[in-house]
Design a protein that fits this description.
6-stranded parallel sheet; Beta Polymerase, domain 2; 5-stranded mixed sheet; 10 helices; Rossmann fold; alpha/beta; 11 strands; 294 residues
Length: 294
């Protein structure tokens, strides 16, 4: 049986992965194409979505009989070298030709793959390329027209690059995950620089103009100014849309996150916590009335 193997993090799966799979089926004439999500890429230190979640997304996305989403690496719950997966498949099937589909970005590190000299004698590499990368003559190429990567999609959740079958799940998970990471980063900076009584208010679905509000108490005006400088330095990926610096009360607008840095006197005087809590209760009552009216 001739097969193709397409491994990767798929964090998240996107339309580029779809095109690679279907172009491989068209051009390689294999009886089976195995899609193999990693638990953790051997060249990475972390993943964003858990491997079981990525596995489930791929199984929902690829249902063709000639395609099998293989859970071998996910079940190991550790980094798995590609040659181990090839050996596993050879132990299960009587295999002839084995095509190994890789991205053009893997070419630079290919010789550093675990047991590379053995691997290259077991498989034929097929390179999926999104650009005009010139490949060695001995390598097959799959020209891919979808110019997207998982990392770009995580930083800019453009739904046009997400397959319809998993669109809502992907958007919901990564949007929530990215927001969580951003909030944690802000809180860590404030905490490390001695801000006090840091509180986070989730304002989603509460008819408020931002999704999250963070309030922190400063030790005084100079401390507030220093915290502002630390946030500017530490939040390189954020866009500071507006800063209202009034000495005792600094407001930082990041678009969907609002940060209030307040002296103890101002925080006590204006009691933003009570206002935000009342907003929460108000929206709960509105939602309840809407449900009762249905």
């Amino acid at each position: 049986m001739d097969i193709a193997i397409f491994g990767g993090s798929f964090d998240p799966p996107h339309c580029g992965h779809e095109e690679i799979v279907f172009k491989a089926l068209e051009s390689l004439h294999v009886e089976k194409l195995f899609i193999v999500p990693t638990h953790l890429n051997p060249f990475k230190k972390e993943f964003f979505a858990p491997s079981q979640m990525r596995l489930a997304w791929l199984k929902k996305l690829f249902t063709c009989k000639k395609i099998e989403v293989l859970d071998f690496e996910v079940k190991q719950k550790k980094q798995v070298a590609t040659i181990k997966t090839v050996e596993y498949l050879k132990s299960r099937y009587s295999l002839g030709k084995i095509y190994l589909i890789i991205g053009a970005d893997n070419l630079k590190s290919l010789e550093h793959w675990h047991r590379y000299n053995e691997l290259k004698n077991m498989v034929e590499f097929v390179v999926a390329s999104r650009d005009e990368t010139i490949l060695p003559k001995e390598l097959k190429k799959l020209p891919i027209n979808v110019k997207i990567s998982s990392s770009k999609l995580r930083s800019n959740m453009n739904k046009s690059f997400i397959p319809n079958q998993i669109e809502d799940e992907i958007e919901e998970y990564y949007t929530r995950k990215i927001m969580k990471n951003r909030i944690e980063n802000i809180v860590n900076i404030l905490d490390s620089k001695k801000a006090e009584n840091i509180q986070i208010f989730n304002m989603q679905d509460k008819d408020y103009f931002v999704e999250q509000v963070i309030i922190a108490t400063t030790l005084g005006e100079r401390h507030g100014a220093a915290l502002l400088d630390d946030l500017k330095k530490g939040l390189n990926d954020e866009s500071f849309l507006h800063i209202d610096d009034e000495n005792e009360w600094i407001v930082i607008d990041l678009g969907d996150i609002l940060i209030h840095l307040m002296t103890p006197q101002y925080r006590s005087k204006y009691n933003l916590e009570e206002f935000l809590a009342e907003r929460d209760e108000e929206m709960k009552k509105i939602r309840q009335l809407a449900l009762e009216g249905e």
